User: Which sequence fits this backbone?
């Protein structure tokens, strides 16, 4: 799930069994092993990104498996299925 | 990763790297983005620098490659279309509230 406050997007992803979870999106050039999320108590993984105004696409990659976030700002069809969207208002 | 150093107003930044890595620098708004050499000890590079309270952006330079902090998941977009790592330094003194805690 994504919560946007001003230019700050907070990403939370529930995956208690995962060893490693990465945030991957157009804001980091879709590099898969770049943005390691932090494990939180209760099985959630967390990250925050300050972004410029606009619409960005992302997914999570947990132990090599890709996941769409269905509790984000929206969805769009990408080359490999549904990408999640996060919108930062101007 | 980073943690508040014993001396108030200082932050210790560190990064674990593989054996083949030769040089690591820290650069951030608090160094005017000038690379600051980090010292190697026990498989990690670290350096302690004075940082004013507030939100600051930084990045590591590992053998010439700019890297975000692999141990911390707060980032901010920069003008180069990549991300910087973000550290927030508490304005509150560490004395009373933190005393007795680990």
Assistant:
């Amino acid at each position: 799930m994504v919560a946007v406050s001003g230019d700050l997007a907070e990403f939370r992803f529930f995956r208690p069994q995962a060893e490693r979870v990465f945030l991957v999106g157009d804001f980091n050039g879709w590099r898969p092993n770049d943005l390691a999320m932090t494990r939180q108590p209760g099985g959630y993984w967390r990250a925050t990104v300050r972004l410029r105004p606009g619409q960005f696409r992302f997914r999570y990659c947990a132990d090599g498996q890709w996941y769409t976030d269905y509790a984000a700002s929206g969805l769009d069809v990408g080359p490999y299925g549904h990408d999640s969207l996060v919108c930062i208002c101007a | 990763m980073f943690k508040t150093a014993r001396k108030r107003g200082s932050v210790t930044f560190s990064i674990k790297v593989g054996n083949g890595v030769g040089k690591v620098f820290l650069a951030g708004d608090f160094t005017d983005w000038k690379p600051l050499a980090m010292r190697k000890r026990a498989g990690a590079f670290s350096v302690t620098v004075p940082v004013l309270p507030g939100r600051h952006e930084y990045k590591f330079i590992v053998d010439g490659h700019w890297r975000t902090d692999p141990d911390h998941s707060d980032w901010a977009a920069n003008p180069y279309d990549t991300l910087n790592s973000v550290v927030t330094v508490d304005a509150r003194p560490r004395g009373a509230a933190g005393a007795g805690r680990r």
In short: The radius of gyration of chain A is 12 Å.
